[in-house]
């Protein structure tokens, strides 16, 4: 079926039983088409996938006017319906953002194709050879909010990893997403790939999300991108595995054995380089012997940046103007110029704090002691553990993944920044020559 | 807390609100103890884990009499309550089975430790080094049925991979499991590992399973081992990721380009070497040009083994005595001396059949054609895909994993036979020297 077939009536969908039945039928048809496209994708090679990505980029380039027009209609409707400035900004496209989408497609096309790589092919005593081949997951459902550029990012990464995808963007971006979808569609056609390999959900009925996350027969994994409440709701209700990104309550622990200049640079950067990102430090843990020397220097730097400090009693006894920190501060993901500071007694105390209050996202130690560095790396149970580096490095691009579909705070499958590899799985391949089991 | 603390009253637990509260409190205490033990396990090295495994083996050796006594009480109660012969056989211990448990512990101790391995440590343009370290999952819940030797297998694999585990065996094996648990406990103590690293659930109240699968704060993954109905129920109700093993509807496709002697050997072995295993062939697909030559030879061999044949019309026109196969036969996991046979027209037809009716477990092609072998490996979406080998090879030991906790039919995390590596995850490690993000 065509990905533009049977779109349910859009704006004026009512939450009635009849329209719900329509949504179920529509989402089922998308699921079936995606499953078929996913199977077909296993027959297409790297060259075809790259050709499609580059063709999509060309279609975005020549469609700038219609993209900006569609986006202007979304923005006008957003303003009418009283959207705040922040979501309006996320929704907005301009030439720079279209350039970035085009550049992103070129970058994904240039990435090595993970599909087909065989690891560890070894001969067994029985005579068979056994290895593991990297293969697409199959069908990926992505649920996101107002940013229309996610449509291009998600489509390109899923496609490069050999998957079919179903994309459900925010209703506020529906005209922008439809215009982008047309470019994606044209690119797929041009490269001879199945157009159902990328399907953009054409209804804004919220029941569509409920369907998408409950079709294990058609969808292999759901990746929600958005606020915590969206992700929590989807994780709770999904009947399909979810790769999710929850809190980033990140710590920097400065041990007594730290080089204090490095500690200063890292503690300032981890907090102030950006406030709203998940890998920003939210709690600074200072080993007692260095607190008195380091805290005043840091407090001055944070004051310059306008960072509010909330601290334990020992912190407050060293520097002035620190708000008393409570239990809720140790667990807080501020995403704002606010920092919790605690003076601790050594690495055990620091690791116990991280285990109790952290979110297992990204945690760093600053130390010159080899044994402590080794312990911290082994014992802190977070998706990224760092020695003498800013938590802000926890990012797919910084790690060299080339692109990032998100950061996983799950332990299974993909943990930490998720690139193309996280959109694949591995199956066993067995090569014999008439071998049978004895 | 000790793993034998606060066992809820056992046989005579009533399904009342009061006892349910007790079960919740009990399971919560196990969960908390497991979480703490999991954290502690990250501090213990390979030598300590191996010492514990070998100490457990010694304790099993010297406890033979009490193990057999406990098992005899389980068997007597099983007979009284009318257990069938098959579950009674699975429940029974004898010296040979105790030997096998002891040998299993030695084998797991001899396996390489997966924990701590760092892959792909590379320098990035920013100056940091980034790699991925293999680490324990944390806390693993295992739910199984009557076989008491699973208690030792599951405990040893979880422990070697650095995890804490909570084991919930069948109530019919409760005395055997308690006796085995005492040996495990003694082994952990002797090696200085936390005894809560392996906890055997001491209540037979079925509410305990419901608790175990709904404590994401204490349990990282559930592995159910048992019949399909158990696994489906757990997957449906779990609030924790589940590594599951559902159907094995395995196919052998014999292409026209096959060496027919190899095809004969593989088709006979894949069906008749064992009937009740998930990697047994359930449907044989024969390419039309070779069906007339191969089918009579195979039918004779299957007749000798007492295998009932159910076939499509073309099959029935070639050999006599074949029952007509219906849709339900193509989807059947017989686990019995029954085989479905279909004559197909080439690899496309065969792969379409496998995609439609298969369970994505293990599928094989028999061919001497390089291009067809390559296509089958790339395009068939199963946890094991094979060329010229019997599906019966799909097994952790045959693949060289050393041991197997189960076979996963999931796509995410672990796919196919799951060994120690499937009980671990990878986190990013970042090594810097005061590096900050620009």
TrEMBL record, chains A, B:
**Cross-referenced SUPFAM superfamilies, in alphabetical order?**
ALDH-like
Q: Which reaction does it catalyse?
A: L-glutamate 5-semialdehyde + phosphate + NADP(+) = L-glutamyl 5-phosphate + NADPH + H(+)
Q: What is its main location?
A: cytoplasm
Question: What are the alphabetically sorted keywords of the record?
Answer: Amino-acid biosynthesis, Cytoplasm, NADP, Oxidoreductase, Proline biosynthesis
> Keyword Secreted, does the record have it?
no
CDD domains registered for this protein in UniProt: ALDH_F18-19_ProA-GPR (cd07079)
Q: Give the enzyme's main class according to its UniProt record, as a single word.
A: oxidoreductase
Localization of this protein? Cytoplasm
Question: Where in the numbering of this chain does the Aldehyde dehydrogenase domain appear?
Answer: 6-304
EC code(s) of this entry: 1.2.1.41
Pathway as given in its UniProt record: Amino-acid biosynthesis; L-proline biosynthesis; L-glutamate 5-semialdehyde from L-glutamate: step 2/2
Q: Which InterPro entries match?
A: Ald_DH/histidinol_DH, Ald_DH_C, Ald_DH_N, Aldehyde_DH_dom, G-glutamylP_reductase_CS, Glu-5-SA_DH, GPR_dom
Superkingdom field: Bacteria
Q: Describe the family membership recorded for this protein in Swiss-Prot or TrEMBL.
A: Belongs to the gamma-glutamyl phosphate reductase family.
Q: Please explain the role this protein plays, according to its UniProt record.
A: Catalyzes the NADPH-dependent reduction of L-glutamate 5-phosphate into L-glutamate 5-semialdehyde and phosphate. The product spontaneously undergoes cyclization to form 1-pyrroline-5-carboxylate.
Q: What is this protein called?
A: Gamma-glutamyl phosphate reductase
Species whose genome carries this gene: Litchfieldella qijiaojingensis
